[in-house]
Structures are given as C-alpha cells and as structure tokens.
Design a protein that fits this description.
The chain is mainly α and 415 residues long. The chain has helices at 30-39, 41-86, 94-116, 129-150, 155-161, 165-176, 183-200, 227-231, 243-270, 276-297, 309-335, 338-345, 347-360, 366-396, 404-414. The protein has one domain. Residues 1-42, 395-415 are annotated as: Disordered.
C-alpha cells in the first residue's frame, strides 16, 4: 500500500471473552444463607461478644440475685411466723417457732456438710469452738427477740428495727475489738435510735395512738383483716395490744439487733478459720437445743401440735425458707461486695410493706415511715463510711509476701 492512502477495509470486531461476561446471580437458598452467616467471622464474633457480656453480667450480679432471694425467703418466713403466732386460736410461742425452723436448718445443714465433706465439720477447729458457740448463742438470743417482737409488732416495724444492726455492730466492735468508732458513727447511732423511738411510739411521746382508717380502732389493734380471716378460725379475735406490750416488743426487736451484732462481731473474729456453714450450723444447733430446753422447763410453755393443714403448711414454709435464708445469704455475701449487698437488704422493708398490705390490709402510720427513713439513712451512712475506710486503707497499706494472705482473709471476713 502506498504512502498516504487509506484502507477501505472495515476494522475487525473486538474479540469477546465469554469468561468475562456477567452472569445473572441465582438466588441463594435460605439454608445456604444461614450456613454462610454461621461461618461469617464477623457474625460469630458478634455472637461471642454478646455471650461474653451476658456471662460477665451474670458473674457480676449473681451474688446480688442470691441476696435478693435470701431477703425474699426472710420476708416469707417472717410472715409465716406471724401467722402462726397471731392468726389461729391455737397460737405458737416464739420458742416453738425457733425450734421448728432451726431443727430443719440443723438437719439440712448436717446433710449438706456430709455430702460435700466440709473440712473440720461439724464442730470446727479446736481453737475457735468457743467463738463458734458464742456466735450461736448470740444468734439464738437475737432470733428470740425477733420472733417475740413479731407477736405484737407489724412485720415492717420489726424489720426496720433490724436495720440498726450495722450501727450496733460498729459499737460492739469498738468495745470488744478496739476498732475505731468515729464521731460520724456515733451521730449515725443517735439518728438510728431516734428512728426506733418513732417506730416504737411510746406513750410519753405519742399519748394519742394513730387510728386505723379502715377499722376506726388504734392502729396497733388492727392485726387481722383479709387473708388471715379466711385461714383462721371464726372464733379467733385479735387481742388488743397495749402500749406496754408494744414497748416490750420494740425492746425485743432491739435485743434481736444486739444479738445479731454480737454474732457478726464473733464471725469477724472467726474470719476464714471456719467454713461459713459450720458457723450457721452452730447457730441452728444451739437455737434448737435452747428453744427445746425453754419449752420443757418453763411451766407456762409447752409444745403445741398443729390443728389444720394450713398450720402444717406454715411450719413447712418456716423450715424451708429458714434454711434457704441462711444458705443463700451466706453464698451471696461470699460473692458480692458488702456495700452492694447491704443496700439490697433494705429491699426486705419494701417486701414487708407489700405483704402487710396484701395479707393484713394495714399500712403503717406516718411516724413509722419517718422512723424507717432515719434508720435506713443511718445504716447507709455507716456502710458508705466503712467502704471509704477500706478504700483508704487499701491505698496506704503495703502488703508484703508474708502478710498478704492474712490481709486477704481480713477483707473476706469484713464481707
């Protein structure tokens, strides 16, 4: 072809590669999509992260769940005890209720320790048996005070008085263990006992008792109203409660708080030298023997047999919930910090108010609510101050290799 000429031949069409052509995608079956999602690393990582978060939440709050269940069992047990003591023509004395509850706790505790082969069970190490016996005796005295107070007080009033235990424990540890007792703790104690006076409502402070809005009678006399009337005999008439009886019941509730404080101080001294279930079993065994001895020796007291299926049911409820209370509370306190667990224990007052409203149809007067607010505020103040002291000590204390296990045992004992 000469230079400068053009070719009339049309250009060849481009060669098409079949391998590069786009093929319309076919729909993927649902089963295949699920398989691909399971095999997807991002999806698997997301599921694993969610599972880990749920497991971490469970581990972080499982102790609180156990404490909540323990408080629920305690409220149910107190309700059953009050029904047995006041709701039937055949009334059960506080000593017999203690005997029933603690006999069940002793049997179940012994079986549990035998099954799990608890070290040093059932008597514990030789050097601390007297401390274990002291813990059991103080617990028995306190338990008698609680059940005696339930014979005359509302459940909410008897429950709220137990919240002075942290304040009394600080005072007992100051006298017995020479632990510091600050001015703030003394002020909290004064606030707490002011709350107790409001709950007690002595006649020299409150000459005119509050009137129940439903019955028109004094609030202390309105004991049985709804469910109790159905469960008990028609011949049963609630006995009027005098100011003297109410004062004695409040003193018994304070005795319960003092006995519990002595028991907690003993547990603090024992520390980790004894398994927690051994301590509980000492308490249950001493209470069983002590209550049985009082019932046998006292001329005006004797064992009473249940006369109806509902009474047998209440006895079974007391035995089961009493053991679950001790077991769940011990397990919960071992897994949870003392501050969070103590604050959750105040939920028992809410449960007591609900139970009173549902079963007895009563609501405490404004004085009881004011006293409850003072007692709970003092208890929370004591708890927060104890937590601050522990944090400060953990920042300033230097633990070498020899005393680190001892310090760890002390921290666990405080819990």
């Amino acid at each position: 072809m000469a230079y400068g000429t053009t070719s009339s031949t049309p250009p060849a069409p481009p060669v098409q590669n079949d391998s590069l052509q786009e093929v319309p995608a076919e729909p993927i079956p649902e089963e295949e999509q699920e398989r691909l999602q399971k095999d997807d690393p991002a999806c698997a990582h997301h599921k694993r992260t969610v599972r880990q978060k749920l497991h971490a939440f469970y581990d972080r709050n499982f102790g609180l769940v156990l404490v909540f269940l323990a408080q629920t069992c305690g409220s149910i047990m107190n309700t059953a005890a009050k029904l047995l003591a006041t709701g039937y023509e055949t009334k059960f004395h506080a000593m017999q209720i203690i005997f029933i509850r603690m006999l069940c706790t002793t049997i179940l505790g012994m079986l549990y320790m035998m099954w799990h082969k608890t070290p040093d069970s059932p008597l514990g190490a030789r050097g601390i048996r007297w401390l274990l016996a002291l813990r059991g005796t103080c617990g028995f005295v306190g338990l008698f005070g609680l059940y005696y107070s339930l014979s005359w007080l509302n459940i909410s009033d008897a429950t709220v008085i137990t919240f002075i235990i942290p304040t009394l424990t600080a005072l007992v540890c100051f006298i017995w263990l020479r632990e510091p007792f600050t001015v703030r703790e003394a002020l909290a104690a004064l606030i707490a006992f002011t709350g107790v006076l409001l709950v007690a409502r002595p006649t020299w402070l409150f000459p005119n008792p509050p009137v129940d809005p439903i019955t028109g009678q004094p609030e202390a006399d309105a004991v049985v109203k709804t469910l109790l009337d159905v469960m008990s005999s028609p011949k049963t008439t609630p006995a009027p409660i005098s100011p003297t009886q109410r004062t004695l019941a409040v003193l018994a509730a304070v005795l319960n708080a003092f006995g519990a404080s002595m028991a907690y101080a003993s547990i603090r001294v024992i520390g980790k030298r004894a398994h927690s279930l051994i301590s509980v079993n000492y308490f249950a065994a001493i209470a069983t023997v002590g209550s049985a001895a009082v019932l046998l020796i006292h001329p005006d007291l004797h064992f009473v047999m249940p006369e109806s299926a509902s009474q047998w049911g209440l006895i079974a409820v007391i035995g089961l919930t009493g053991f679950l209370l001790q077991f769940l509370l011990t397990e919960g306190l071992q897994r949870e910090k003392a501050g969070r667990a103590t604050n959750l224990m105040y939920l028992q007052l809410v449960l007591a108010l609900i139970i009173e409203r549902v079963i007895w149809g009563t609501t405490p007067p404004i004085e009881s609510f004011g006293g409850a607010a003072l007692i709970i505020a003092a208890a929370i103040w004591i708890t927060l101050q104890k937590n601050t002291v522990v944090k400060d000590e953990s920042k300033t204390k230097i633990a070498d290799e020899e005393n680190r296990p001892l310090l760890a045992g002390e921290q666990r004992a405080e819990r």
